Amino acid sequence: MFYQTTPDYLPLYHENGYRFFKLGEEALVDLSSFTLRGKRNAALRAVHNRFEQEGFRFEVASPPHQEKLMERLKYISDQWLRGKKEKGFSIGWFDENYLQLAPLALIIDQENKVIAFASVAPVYDHDVTLSVDLMRHLPEVPNGTMDQLFISLFEFAREQGTIKRNLRPDGNPDIWLIRQMYLCLYCYSSWSACYHASRTNCGTKASGSI
Questions:
Q1: DSSP-based three-state secondary structure for 121
Q2: Under 8 Å CB-to-CB from 195, ≥6 apart: which residues?
Q3: CATH architecture of 26-198
Q4: DSSP label at residue 6
Q5: How far is residue 116's CA from residue 76's CA, in Å, rounded to a whole number?
Q6: How far apart are CA 165 and CA 130, in angstroms?
Q7: For the segment 57-102, what is each residue's pLDDT rounded down to a tens digit?
């Protein structure tokens, strides 16, 4: 199986008997044109302003990370999973050794506690693109927390000279893209819980595939 294939190699895969399955598309936000100004992104601007006014902070922590931070992220991850097993493949999973290799985007509350985080994944294109991998938050966080994380990461990446921001699913650089992506992650988690429940209730009779 080949994952994240490019069009250049599709004929070669086809000639060797491989079948194609479209799992999704990458969404690239042009940070040179992204802005919170104007009517189009008024909702995003309102979220951003509210979090700043209420005393929440955004930080990017560079590796190596302190043990105290990793313990906090593990707690957040466990709360996010709520007893479910990790799913790997196309999305990241919590692995301290892996997270120690990457910068971490953090949302910190008024009590100086991390409530949400995302790991910055390497993109080997001479720092033109910034991408994220693992994204998690506590179950009880203010509405718009992940919106704020992405908005702040956009601004951070632009300040660092990054040209593009990779969001992975398809869409446009506005609030609908961010929320649609987050909805996909939520649906995936819900489907996973239902699937495992069906396996438990039906024993060997239950089966499923994507």
A1: strand
A2: 208
A3: 3-Layer(aba) Sandwich (3.40)
A4: -
A5: 7
A6: 5
A7: 999 999 999 999 999 999 999 999 988 877 765 567 789 998 998 8
Q: How far apart are CA 189 and CA 84, in angstroms?
A: 9
What's the confidence (pLDDT) of residue 116? 98
Give 153-208 pLDDT, tens digit per residue.
988 888 877 655 454 443 333 444 444 444 444 454 454 445 444 444 444 333 33
pLDDT at residue number 154:
87
- Give the position of tokens 């992650």: 185
E strand or H helix at 152: helix 145-159
Q: Is the pLDDT of residue 15 over 80?
A: yes
CA distance 47 to 167: 19
- What pLDDT does 181 receive? 47
Give residues with Cβ within 8 angstroms of 153, minimum separation 6.
58, 60, 105, 118, 130, 132, 165
pLDDT at 170: 38
Sign of torsion, CA 88 80 177 124?
Answer: negative
Which residue spans within 163-204 are E strands per DSSP?
Answer: 164-166
Q: At what angle do helices 42-53 and 145-159 cross, to 10 degrees?
A: 100
Nearest to 199 by CA among 187, 190, 191, 208: 208
Closest CA to 131 of 155, 101, 159, 153: 153
What residues pair up with 60 in beta bridges, in sequence order? 105
Q: Where are the domains of the chain?
A: 26-198
